[in-house]
C-alpha cells in the first residue's frame, strides 16, 4: 500500500505506541487520585504538556488537552454561543466554520486565487470589528500558509482576538505560539504520528477560554472529565519526536513534493492548484483535465494507493471543494482535485509509481 493521505491522519509512530503502552496496561491510575498510581498518571500528563509546550514554544500552563483539533476549535470559538461577532477565513476547516455559525453573527474573510488572505481583507476587518477572527495557519487541502503573525499584529491592537487552527502546520513547519501573538491556537495529535482523539488548545494568559465541559475541575476547570492519559502521553511523545526530527522530516517531504510536482507537470493535462505561495512541504493538490477527482481516487484505491479528493471530512460528498471555490476555481475544474499529502516515510519510488499511474489516466 502507498499511503499519500497524511493530512487526513498519520500512522502511529512505534515509539509513541511504546510510550503509551504502560498507561494502557499497568499505570492505569486516575490522575485525580492521590495514591501512587494516580500521581504517576498525573506526572505523565504534565510531562506530555511540557513536550507539547516545547514543540509550540508556549508555557505548559497555557495548554489544555482536548479530544482533538475539532474540539480545540470549538473550545476557542464557543464564546460564539453568546453575543459574539466572528470572522473566519474562507478556507477554514468545517470545525471552525460550523462553530462560527453558532455566533450571533459571522462573516467570511475572502482569500485570493492561491488561498491567501491579503492585507486589504485584514484592513477591512479593522473596520467591521469582529470580536474574534479565526484564520488557519496552513490549509489542509492546498497546504497554503497564512501570514498569521503579521495578521495578529494588525488586529490585536484594535481589541480583536485571534484564533489560529494550526492542526496541519504542527510538526511540518516551525511553530511558535509566543511569537505568533494570537490568543488561541488549536493542535491535534493524530496529524503528527500520535494517537487519534487527542489535541490541545493553547491560550494566552490574558484570554483563557470559557469552560467547555464542567464537572470535576480537570484541566484548570476549563475542560472537566478524567483525562485520556495514554493518548495524552502519546501526543507528548509524538511532539517530542516532531521537535527533534522537524528539519529532517521537512527536508525529506519537501524533496519528495518537489519531485512529485516536477513529474506531474510533465503532463500537459495536469493543473497544480495553489502553487507560487508559501505552502506546507508535504501537500500537493492537483487535477487532471476533465477527469473527476473522485474517480481518480477510487481507481488509485483499487491499485493500493491512498489519496484524498479534498479534505477527508468532505470525502464522499460530490460537491466540489469549498476551498477551491473560495479561491475562484471554476466548479468543473475544482471537481478534478486530488490531494496527495506526504510524510517523511514516503519514498521516491512511490512517487514515481504514482506519477506513472496518473499519466496513464490522462492518456
Ligand atoms: N483543522 C484542520 C485544518 C484539520 O485538517 C483537521 C483534521 O483534518 C481538524 C482541524 C480536525 O482535527 P481532529 O481530526 O483532531 O478533530
Description:
Helix 2 packs parallel to helix 8. The chain contains twelve helices and twelve strands. The strands form three sheets. A seven-stranded mixed beta sheet has the order 2-8-7-6-5-3-4, with helices on both faces. Strands 9-10-12 form a three-stranded antiparallel beta sheet. A two-stranded parallel sheet has the order 1-11. The model has no long low-confidence stretch (mean pLDDT 95). The longest helix is centred in the last third of the chain and has 36 residues. It binds pyridoxal-5'-phosphate.
For the structure shown, list the relevant keywords.
single chain; 363 residues; alpha/beta; seven-stranded mixed β-sheet; three-stranded antiparallel β-sheet; 39% helix; globular; binds pyridoxal-5'-phosphate
Treating each run of at least 4 consecutive H or I residues as one helix, how many helices? 12
The rough form would be described as: globular
Q: Helix and strand string, N-terminal first?
A: EHHEHEHEHEHEHEEHEEHEHHEH
| Helicity range | 25-40%
Main β-sheet, in a few words?
Answer: 7 strands, mixed
Which molecules are bound besides the chains?
pyridoxal-5'-phosphate
From the helix content, strand content and strand pairing, which structural class follows?
Answer: alpha/beta
β-sheet strand percentage: 5-15%
The N- to C-terminal Cα distance equals 24 Å
Mean pLDDT: 95
CA radius of gyration: 21 Å
Sequence of strands across the biggest β-sheet: 2-8-7-6-5-3-4
Uncertain ranges: none
Tally of extended strands?
Answer: 12
